[in-house]
Amino acid sequence: MIPVILPLKLLGAALPLALILLAPLPAHALLGSQTKAAELAGAILFAKEDCAHCHGPGGSGGKKGPDLKDLRKDKNWPPQKIASQILNGGKKMPPFSDSLTDEQIAQLVAWLRAKHRPIPPPNPSAQPPAQ
Predict the structure, then answer these.
(1) How far apart are alpha carbons 105 and 42 in whole angstroms?
(2) What single DSSP character describes residue 100?
(3) Is the separation of the CB atoms in 117 and 47 below 8 Å?
(4) Secondary structure of 11-43 in the HEC alphabet?
(5) Count of domains for the chain
(6) What domain range includes position 67?
(7) Rounded distance, CA 118 to CA 40, Å?
(8) What does the pLDDT look like over 82-111, one tens digit per residue?
(9) Is residue 83 part of a domain?
(10) Residue 97: which CATH number?
(11) Are 123 and 52 in contact, with CB atoms under 8 Å apart?
């Protein structure tokens, strides 16, 4: 019985210390790699789905769609409202609920809300064929 009790006591002493050390870290520091991966996936999806056709390169605004660059700072556009806009459309934007998964919408929202957005690669289908 002693061999089991000693590791439990050590774990019991280490757990509060771990919580104290991790408490001051913001959530994005602990989940940063997941967030960065979602942001990059959102950037790729923005290019792949040709969102730039309406919203301009990198979301800088276009003839049909608004500028999305400062969307993360706009208190009127929390993540849930952005997701709803993508899903259901509105004003001139068509709905994408039939063509995007929940995960893809979450990735687009992560990219749109990123402080330092990854630059979407060029859309391969929008480029002219090589000669």
Answers:
(1) 8
(2) S
(3) no
(4) HHHHHHHHHHHHCCCCHHHHHHHHHHHHHHHHH
(5) 1
(6) 31-122
(7) 6
(8) 999 999 998 889 999 999 999 999 999 999
(9) yes
(10) 1.10.760.10
(11) yes
Query: For residues 39 and 114, is the Cβ–Cβ distance under 8 A?
Result: yes
Tokens of 94: 């068509």
Q: Token pair 């391969």 is at which residue?
A: 124
Instruction: Indicate the pTM of the whole model.
Output: 0.67
- Condensed to tens digits (0 to 9), the pLDDT of residues 5-54 reads 545 454 455 545 444 444 443 444 334 457 889 999 999 999 899 898 99
Helices and strands of the chain, counted as H and E runs: 5, 0
**Contact residues for 35 (Cβ-Cβ < 8 A; gap 6+):** 28, 110
Kindly state whether residue 81 falls inside one of the protein's structural domains.
yes
| Residue 93: strand, helix, or coil | strand
